[in-house]
Automatic annotation (TrEMBL):
<comment type="function">
    <text>Catalyzes the conversion of methylthioalkyl glucosinolates of any chain length into methylsulfinylalkyl glucosinolates.</text>
</comment>
<dbReference type="InterPro" id="IPR000960">
    <property type="entry name" value="Flavin_mOase"/>
</dbReference>
<keyword id="KW-0560">Oxidoreductase</keyword>
<dbReference type="Pfam" id="PF00743">
    <property type="entry name" value="FMO-like"/>
</dbReference>
<dbReference type="GO" id="GO:0050661">
    <property type="term" value="F:NADP binding"/>
</dbReference>
<keyword id="KW-0521">NADP</keyword>
<comment type="similarity">
    <text>Belongs to the FMO family.</text>
</comment>
<keyword id="KW-0285">Flavoprotein</keyword>
<dbReference type="InterPro" id="IPR050346">
    <property type="entry name" value="FMO-like"/>
</dbReference>
<protein>
    <recommendedName>
        <fullName>Flavin-containing monooxygenase</fullName>
        <ecNumber>1.-.-.-</ecNumber>
    </recommendedName>
</protein>
<keyword id="KW-0503">Monooxygenase</keyword>
<dbReference type="GO" id="GO:0050660">
    <property type="term" value="F:flavin adenine dinucleotide binding"/>
</dbReference>
<dbReference type="InterPro" id="IPR020946">
    <property type="entry name" value="Flavin_mOase-like"/>
</dbReference>
<keyword id="KW-0274">FAD</keyword>
<dbReference type="GO" id="GO:0004499">
    <property type="term" value="F:N,N-dimethylaniline monooxygenase activity"/>
</dbReference>
<dbReference type="InterPro" id="IPR036188">
    <property type="entry name" value="FAD/NAD-bd_sf"/>
</dbReference>
Length: 471
């Protein structure tokens, strides 16, 4: 629904990662005054690799994390570059840089820096600035959402100067791949040997020849808990340095690709979930098998956390469900003055973030409006119910995995639907990973789809490009 009135707002964006950057651009394009607060020294968010993890709590249980990024050195994109990137700024190959279809994380950081510089966003960002508090002015919103304002307190990390400001709206784009999510395992707190979350894993070298640390005839191994992306990647790295790796998975019904990897490496073993941990280093699995382990690496995902945000209990986190949020973005009673970006997962992220940013910007300017508060709450309850019927756990509430859902989201503002070639390449990649986990990033069979992508308006819109894909 369009509005005849136009309003320019003072907006605070928290975070200068992919979602925060595109939010800043769209808000400015819509005529809003934008300030981006970023705790690190540069843009990138999670993609700003930080090798220095010394001093970080190995399990991430400390109230405040020192390290934001959870990237490990060897990490490469899960999806090919041609389906990543924002719709009007293709993630094109550049000579002298990482030219692979599935580049490493440094290449994506460079893309984000290019995006930032191309659209002149740096002038909007305050770097090395940590947000300590975000709350409603006067502590409530009795005047209604239209009159709601937000107090934002931040500190410049180098000077330790505190600043308090008032904004008309806040966009939370602080990411959710930093705070470790840990399992509850009997004996976990009493286990004496090394335990860590993948949040602080960087390179495999510290795990080399660890058997020397303990007595002879004691089999020293690494147990990796969780067989999702990071668990698989880290296990495959450790096979060249550790004596033995046991990959503990919820289900032993694994993909063909992972099965091939396990059969190829004699020191990589699949095990079910852990039953308990013993003080002597014994790891007991639910099938009765056990091993003496030196290290346990928990590749068990991350928790949504917003320690700076005070909504007087309106927005809560329950078993990793942030809610209530209308379409993973707007808390009905605080919208559109408070919004969240990047909450949804298992999507082609950048186009989705872009549609989110455009919608938020247009809502704040009054160019479009949201449904009524009651209608939004009804929609949220229906969505929760549909997930329950489908047997999806509450902690997976924000995992979408549905092209149609993303397309319907963009329909709110007439955002173009994902191109068919983009969807097909995504599905083709997932299939290849399922069958050839170790090789799919360097060997593929979707050459026709790749050509269709490179010849599409997405890649040709900016004029001649240095498109030198290794075909």
């Amino acid at each position: 629904m369009a509005s005849e009135t136009y309003q320019s707002k003072n907006v605070c964006v928290i975070g200068a990662g992919p979602s925060g950057l595109v939010a800043a651009r769209e808000l400015r394009n819509e005529g809003h005054r934008v300030v981006v607060l970023e705790q690190n020294h540069d843009v990138g968010g999670q993609w700003l690799y930080d090798p220095n993890v010394e001093g970080e709590d190995p399990l991430g249980r400390a109230p405040t994390l020192k390290v934001h990024s959870s990237l490990y050195t060897s990490l490469r994109l899960m999806l090919p570059r041609e389906i990543a990137g924002f719709t009007d700024f293709p993630f094109a190959v550049k000579k002298g840089r990482d030219m692979r279809r599935f580049p490493g994380h440094t290449e994506l950081l460079l893309y984000l820096k290019d995006f930032c510089d191309w659209f002149g966003l740096r002038e909007l960002i305050r770097f090395n600035t940590r947000v300590s508090y975000v709350g409603m002015l006067d502590g409530d919103h009795a005047g209604g959402c239209k009159d709601l304002k937000w107090v934002v307190r931040s500190v410049e990390k180098k000077t330790e100067i505190f600043v308090e400001e008032v904004f008309d709206a806040v966009v939370v784009a602080s990411g959710h791949y930093s705070k470790p999510r840990l399992p509850s395992i009997k004996g976990m707190d009493a286990w004496k040997r090394k335990q860590m979350h993948s949040h602080i894993y960087r390179v495999p070298e510290p795990f080399r020849d660890e058997a020397r640390q303990y007595i002879v005839n004691c089999e020293i191994v690494v147990v990796v808990v969780g067989n999702s992306v990071s668990g698989q990647d880290i296990s495959m790295e450790l096979v060249d340095v550790a004596k033995a790796i046991y990959l503990s998975a919820k289900s032993l019904d694994i993909s063909e690709g992972l099965s091939k990897v396990i059969s190829k490496h004699e020191n990589l073993h699949l095990r079910p979930q852990i039953e308990s941990l013993q003080e002597d280093g014994n790891v007991l699995f639910v099938d009765g098998s056990w091993v003496i382990a030196d290290t346990i690496i928990y590749c068990t995902g991350y928790s949504y956390t917003f320690p700076f945000l005070d909504t007087k209990g309106i927005v809560t986190i329950d078993d990793n469900r942030v809610g209530p949020l209308y379409v993973h973005t707007f808390p009905p009673s605080l919208a559109p003055s408070l919004s969240f970006m990047g909450i949804a997962t298992k999507i082609i992220g950048f186009p989705f973030f872009e549609s989110q940013a455009k919608w938020i910007a247009q809502l704040l300017s009054g160019q479009t409006t949201l449904p009524s508060r009651d209608d939004m709450m009804h929609s949220i309850k229906e969505f929760y119910h549909s997930r329950e019927i489908a047997g999806i756990p509450k902690h997976n509430t924000h995992e979408i995995g549905d092209f149609e859902y993303c397309d319907r989201y963009g329909d709110h503002i007439g955002f173009p639907r994902l191109e068919e070639w983009r969807k097909k390449i995504c599905l083709s990649t997932i299939r290849n990973a399922e069958t050839d986990l170790e090789t799919y990033k360097d060997s593929w069979d979707d050459h026709e789809l790749l050509q269709e992508a490179l010849q599409s308006p997405h890649f040709t819109q900016l004029g001649p490009q240095d498109l030198d894909f290794p075909l």
